[in-house]
Automatic annotation (TrEMBL):
Pfam families: Abhydrolase_6 (PF12697). This is Abhydrolase domain-containing protein 9. It comes from the Eukaryota. Residues 90-442 form the AB hydrolase-1 domain. One of its GO terms (molecular function) is hydrolase activity. The keyword Hydrolase applies. Belongs to the AB hydrolase superfamily. Epoxide hydrolase family.
């Protein structure tokens, strides 16, 4: 009880400190009291029309909706190629994005030759319905139902049932991907997971660092002149402290709702705009993220804000966006988006519904949805939460959100046979849109779709700054 109170007090104080720093930075940047200009409003409206008009086909993609049995309506886009009935690739974005994050891979003729490509908006994002809550149960049940529905639509109904399914994810989509690969491995033949920590592994690693450091500090109190021992204790806990500093925004997002809302809404959505500037990877001579042009900034913002007022009017489309999307449109849905940080998705227990258990077991039995993977890992031992499906983890070494030592330490223990870890030495967090990094990710997905011929390490040799650090 006391530990919970202490932790809650710490999170409140730290979150308030981070919010204060954000507010100060926005003030110094001259953005705190800014309002959108007419030029910005016009460019945003154009971008929203380009990507969210249901009567159009943005980038040659088709808007579609999938309605779950509970009435939740998820928006996704589809790309079908010449031989796309063979396989299915599902893309899942993270915070604060939407399907637009994946536009480079979705428009790849190479990928669409071998697979139907589907990119979904997470619940509460883009054109998808929100959920009553964002617990592990609610989110994982929803995403499992969506993937099962896509398997039925693209593998069973359109194909011969023998095609493979791949899930490609980023950020929070990857946290979901990790959990599905561990707890519902039947869903896909391979999970390609980019730019996220694996909650079970990271939590265990942090606990181990704390325990080891505590023991050394306790010993040091008995031997206070042992400078070496003190240095070792501090070195052991250092990665945890670094991660805490990098995750400061998470504490701000978990402040009481009015403060958390202010964090995202202040200064004409200053924080969102900063994220999009960082995502490009381009910097000014001073090292600051490069300012985006009007059109580029508008298209980046519409990826986060979703449809605008013009997309809820009369349309030639047979089906429209859910009412919840319309309700959150005026504010961009900031509070809805950060609920995945606030409501226990990371480590919360997932009590699968009877329907989910039955449908997953049907895939295992091979009828009516035959699982084409080898089942590698189903009978292997490993730490709690170990992945049961083959996974390829893609990590940018310069990712500002994660401390690499914690993210990758002992991760091999959690991976099953046939899995890899790919480290991009020059990449940041938004691998799917960073020019060179996106090319690497496309190569990884292409390798999977093309039957995994040859080793992934050999495929990636032409990228000089990429290293396959684990290949099980």
């Amino acid at each position: 009880m006391i530990s919970k109170i202490v932790w809650r007090a710490f999170t409140l104080l730290y979150g308030t400190l981070v919010l204060t720093l954000f507010t100060t930075f926005a003030l110094l940047d001259g953005s705190l009291f800014q309002r959108p200009t007419e030029k910005e409003k016009k460019e945003l409206a154009i971008a929203q029309q380009k990507f969210w008009d249901l009567s159009k086909s943005p980038l040659g993609l088709k808007h579609k909706f999938f309605t779950l049995k509970d009435g939740c309506k998820l928006h996704y886009v589809e790309k079908l190629g010449t031989n796309s009935s063979k396989n299915l690739t599902i893309f899942i974005h993270g915070f604060p994005d939407s399907w637009i994050l994946w536009q480079r891979l979705l428009t790849s003729s190479r990928l669409s030759q071998n697979s139907a490509l589907v990119a979904v908006d997470l619940p509460g994002y883009g054109g998808s319905d929100g959920l009553p809550n964002y617990s592990a149960n609610a989110v994982l049940e929803t995403m499992t139902a969506f993937i099962l529905g896509m398997r039925e639509e693209y593998i069973t109904s359109r194909g011969d049932g023998a095609g493979k399914v791949f899930v490609v994810s980023h950020d929070w989509g990857s946290i979901i991907g990790y959990r599905l690969a561990s707890e519902a491995s039947q869903l896909a033949d391979r999970f390609i997971i980019s730019c996220a920590v694996y909650p079970q592994q990271t939590y265990a690693t942090i606990k181990a660092h704390f325990a080891s450091s505590s023991k050394m500090l306790h010993t040091w109190t008995q031997r206070p002149f042992s400078v070496r021992l003190l240095k070792s204790a501090l070195k052991t806990i250092s990665p945890v402290l670094k991660q805490a500093s990098k995750s400061g925004y998470v504490f701000a997002f978990n402040l009481p709702s009015p403060l958390a809302n202010f964090c995202g809404r202040m200064g004409n959505m200053w924080l969102l705009r900063l994220m999009h500037r960082i995502a490009t990877g381009a910097t000014e001579p001073s090292g600051k993220p490069l300012l985006l042009g009007f059109t580029e900034a508008a298209e980046a913002m519409t990826a986060s804000l979703g449809p605008g007022p013009a997309q809820f009017g009369a349309s030639d489309a047979k089906e429209g966006y859910p009412d919840s999307v319309k309700r959150r449109a005026p504010t961009g849905g900031w509070l809805e988006k950060i609920r995945i940080y606030r409501e226990g998705l990371v480590l919360g227990q997932w009590e699968k519904s009877i329907e989910t258990i039955v449908r997953l077991s049907e895939i295992d039995r091979g009828s009516p949805h035959r699982r084409s993977s080898s089942g590698a890992g189903l009978f292997e031992n490993g730490p709690a939460g170990s992945l049961k499906a083959r996974a390829t983890v893609v990590y940018g070494k310069k990712d500002p959100a994660f401390e690499s030592k914690l993210t990758l330490e002992d991760i091999s223990d959690y991976l099953t046979k046939g899995s890899q870890v790919v480290v991009l030495n020059e990449a940041g967090h938004w691998v799917p849109i960073e020019k060179d990094s996106a090319e690497v990710l496309e190569e990884v997905v292409g390798w999977a779709l093309e039957g995994e011929e040859g080793s992934l390490k050999t495929r990636l040799e032409r990228f000089g700054t990429v290293k396959v650090t684990i290949d099980k």
